[in-house]
Amino acid sequence: MQFRRLVEEYFTFTRRERIAVLALLVVALLVFLLPGMISTKQRFETKLDTSWFSSVIPVENENGAGRSKPRYDYPLRANADNQTSPAQLFPFDPNTATEDEWRRLGLREKTIGTIQKYLERGGQFRRPEDLRKIYGLRKDEWTRLIPLVRITPLQSIPVNKRSVAKPGAPVRIPELEINSADTSDFEALPGIGPTLAARIWKFREKLGGFYSIEQISETFGLPDSTFSLIRQHLKLSGGVFRKLPLNSASVEQLQAHPYIGWKLARPIVAFREQHGPFMKPEDLKKVHAITDQVYMKLHPYLSLD
Description:
Blueprint lengths: L1 H10 L3 H36 L2 H11 L12 E3 L5 E3 L12 H6 L4 H12 L18 H7 L30 E2 L5 H5 L6 H14 L16 H7 L3 E2 L8 E2 L5 H5 L5 H15 L16 H7 L3 E2 L2
Parallel strand pairs: 3-4, 5-6
Antiparallel strand pairs: 1-2
């Protein structure tokens, strides 16, 4: 009797325990069957993913193997109607290529527009590598196009038919004196529109004049490629036309200079008030916030007034 009681006590399950045992059995069954289900699904997906390959063979045969005409497998490019067409490769002169020819070469409409504006403002491609300077032209594009470029010698190139210059006249962009030019003069440079022209002019006025042609490259929003393009057309015959009076300028006047700003203007004035007037421009380096690099950029603009 005691043995029977022990058996009933240890081998009789409550309703909750029976539910738990049943749940464990279901989980064990799923764990057992799941690897086989996943393997079957992967084999099915692999079959779907590679099924397209069989459809390529009839297309290749239809196009005809062994044709003498070369085939190019470059990516499709979207045209103005958002349709796609394969890029074609053929020799071309970027100075005279039409919009349609650029499209056939696989360029996007926005890039074609950039090239047009560049040519309309008097820009010229003097060597194949100049394609790299076009803003928005991708590396894979100019890498593909540069070997196809055939440029007529510069002295033989008439003004492009899209240019505003008189047809037949040789392209010539006069040198521009950067400290006396106005916005319209800057806008006449290749690759410079109204926005960039205004920024260059405002930057010069805030500085107080340029002492180096390279300073133009610091203009906000001016791409390095565009500066490289216009660099040869710039000259500097005058220097800084407005200097900063170190001993009398207010914090507001100092911080308006692009090379100083608010963070440097306050320490300069504080140092002056604590130690007295600056005796020589080099004394500015005694201000803790002024590094040698900052001083080298600033010193042409400094005066002891």
